Amino acid sequence: RTEGRGPADEAHAFVLASNGALDVRCHAHGFGARALELRLRHCGGPGPLTVELPLGAVLVAAGQGRTQPLVAEEPVRVEVWPGEETQVRLTAFCGDSQGAVPRCPMVLTQYVVDSGYASGQAALWRWSAPFQPR
Predict the structure, then answer these.
(1) pLDDT at 120
(2) First to last CA, the chain
(3) In terms of C-beta density within 10 A (0-12 exposed, 13-18 middle, 19 or more buried), how is residue 58 classed?
(4) Separation of alpha carbons 51 and 89, rounded Å
(5) If 0-12 CB within 10 Å is exposed, 13-18 middle and 19+ buried, where does residue 65 land?
(6) Per-residue pLDDT tens for 107-117?
(7) Which top-rank group of organisms is this from (predicted)?
(8) Do the beta carbons of residue 93 and residue 31 sit within 8 Å?
(9) What does pTM read for this prediction?
(10) Phi, psi of 20, rounded to the nearest 5 degrees
């Protein structure tokens, strides 16, 4: 289940990237404080873009193998001007207690974990446990 500001919100980074208005590059440096790096580039058009990544936004590793997905521990809202690239570092939980620590490019998904499960690492692992391979 997802809630809040998700892919139906036109300011969600996933929606803006899907529409071609925003280039999103993500890289994980482990998990925890400032572990997730986002590079957001406005691809053109008039005026600034308001870009949002909600609490609970889910990112997955770009490569193969069992690598921990990351879940945004905090919401992000930034303005990006035409032709400008903005870098944002944010704190993220890991979404798979048995996966490899992510130190790799990540892909932003349209999924947003309920804020109740994104309130702490233990709560997130309780939510994700049924989806993890055994």
Answers:
(1) 92
(2) 22
(3) buried
(4) 14
(5) exposed
(6) 999 999 998 99
(7) Eukaryota
(8) yes
(9) 0.89
(10) 85, 5
- Return all residues near 77 (Cβ < 8 A) that are at least 6 apart: 11, 50, 51, 52
pLDDT above 90 as % of the chain? 78
pLDDT tens profile 3-32: 444 555 889 999 999 999 999 999 999 989
Q: What's the token pair of residue 60?
A: 């997955």
Q: Pairing mode, if any, of strands 57-61 and 49-53?
A: unpaired
Residues 48 and 79: beta-carbon distance below 8 Å: yes
Q: Which amino acid is at 50?
A: T
Distance CA 72, CA 54 (A): 7
pLDDT at 1: 38
Residues 6+ apart with CB under 8 A from 131: none
